[in-house]
Amino acid sequence: MKLIPRHAPSPAPHAFSLIEVMVALAIFFMAVFAILGLMSTLLQNARIFQKLKPPEARMVFAYQTSITNKVIEGTISFEFSEMAEFGDEFRDYSAEIEAVPNEMYTNGLWDVQYRVLSRRTGRVESTFTTYQFDPSTKSKSLNGGGLR
């Protein structure tokens, strides 16, 4: 008969210790919170890019002067959606160009004001005022204009 000692050596451990589990959980949660923070930042950036800024009045000025250098007295209105160059990007906005002959000078100098209006709210989004010289135009209110 074989004698079994009272204090036999314990078998090798097959489970993780509490410290190992805590370290693994700490690493896991650090990775999860880093990924969640990154996703939050990406969603915030996507939201910012989705908000379309209204067109600037300076853009209307640049567009109008690139088409023609002529000044037409009075107010001209147009919709951005009607223009192929802008497409549907600014479909909720319209623009007004108001040209008034300069009262001090009658030599073809015009006060031109560009306005961008929101069709949804009806308010002016941006304005830009400039002087434009066009010696070939004739003012109705100043009996002529142009060079003399």
Description of the molecule:
The chain is α+β, with helices and mostly antiparallel strands and 148 residues long. It has two domains: 17-51; 57-133. The chain contains two helices and four strands. It has a four-stranded antiparallel β-sheet with strand order 1-2-3-4, with helices on one face. The protein is rod-shaped, with a radius of gyration of 36 Å.
Question: Based on helices, strands and strand pairing, what is the structural class?
Answer: alpha+beta
Spatial separation of the terminal alpha carbons: 136 Å
Could you report the average pLDDT, rounded to the nearest whole number? 79
Beta-strand portion reads 15-25%
Q: Quickly count the helices.
A: 2
Domain unit count: 2
Task: Determine Rg (CA atoms, Å).
Answer: 36 Å
What topology does this entry show?
Layout: H1 18-50, H2 57-67, E1 74-79, E2 93-101, E3 109-118, E4 124-133
What labels describe this entry?
single chain; 148 residues; alpha+beta; 2 domains; four-stranded antiparallel beta sheet; 2 helices; 30% helix; rod-shaped; disordered C terminus
Briefly characterize the structure.
The protein is of the alpha+beta class and 148 residues long.
